[in-house]
Write a structure and sequence with these properties.
alpha/beta; Rossmann fold; 10 strands; 32% helix; binds fructose -6-phosphate
Length: 260
């Protein structure tokens, strides 16, 4: 687990975009796992800039999104498909047939969730998974008490997540209470994980995920079990990390860094 603290949100976004770009440079047909929400917007903005100005190529990339609200179709403005289309996909050259966002309108969710897992396997798994973190410590929609071995399935959102996400809807009652989400186990199968967090509101969740016990009550803490996970956090989100000086020391003394 590596914790990289940057002074600002813009800097964590650019640093995370560099990791995505490095992945695509090494493996142009990489499989990317993607997240929605406010946090990755800066990362997506930077990837779009890299595509337009530096020719970062997504033409062989396949994507899998983490989650979707149950009941919202692709063209619903609050659906995660719509979010991804508006904030990333329509601006880059990823083939539309390579895009996977869980369906919020499947007839048989059990069969659909199995299909989603099989589809990830058919693509030889996710090379790089982008994650945000909920203020309750969730990753994707794996709310507190989710099994750390869980796979893609339906999940009932907590009232806190509904409150947190109400800002995107006209009114709180419009926020769906069910989601379809990759499980913690699905996420841990990715080759590499990058989690981004910004703002004071995430400081407790980040500290619990990085320095707390591994627990289903903070599903992001499961990243401690992954051999290659990077946390990009801004100053505010790093505010409650006890080992903050050590994380900075590691970065300063990394081979090739100016401080080494
Ligand atoms: C969304 C997702 C969620 C968010 C989390 C933080 O695809 O997986 O876990 O990453 O709820 O949301 P924001 O970034 O809006 O604070």
């Amino acid at each position: 687990m590596e914790v990289i603290v940057c002074p600002t949100y813009e800097e964590i976004s650019v640093a995370a975009a560099r990791v995505v770009a490095e992945t695509l440079n090494e493996k142009p047909d990489a499989v990317l796992g993607l997240a929605t929400g406010s946090t990755p917007l800066g990362l997506y903005k930077e990837l779009i800039r890299m595509h337009k100005e530096e020719g970062l190529d997504f033409s062989h990339v396949t994507t899998f999104n983490l989650d979707e609200y149950v009941g919202l179709s692709h063209n619903h403005p609050q659906s995660y498909y719509y979010f991804m289309w508006e904030n990333l996909f329509k601006h880059i050259n990823v083939p539309v047939e390579n895009i996977h966002v869980p369906s919020g309108t499947a007839n048989d969710y059990r069969a659909y969730c199995e299909w989603y897992e099989d589809r990830i396997d058919e693509c030889d798994g996710i090379d790089l998974q982008v994650l945000g973190i909920g203020s309750d410590g969730h990753i994707a929609f794996n709310e507190p008490s989710s099994s750390l071995a869980s796979r893609t399935r339906l999940k009932t959102l907590t009232e806190q997540t509904i409150d947190d996400n109400a800002r995107f809807f006209d009114k709180r009652e419009d926020v769906p209470i069910y989601s379809i989400t990759m499980g913690v186990g699905t996420i841990l199968d990715a080759e590499r994980l990058i989690l981004l967090a910004n703002g004071e509101g995430k400081a407790d969740a980040v500290a619990a995920a990085v320095e707390g016990p591994v627990s289903s009550m903070i599903t992001a803490s499961a990243l401690q079990l992954h051999p290659d996970s990077l946390f990009f956090v801004d100053e505010a989100a790093a505010g409650k990390l006890k080992m903050r000086d050590y994380y900075d020391w590691i970065q300063k003394n990394k081979p090739g860094s100016p401080g080494a």
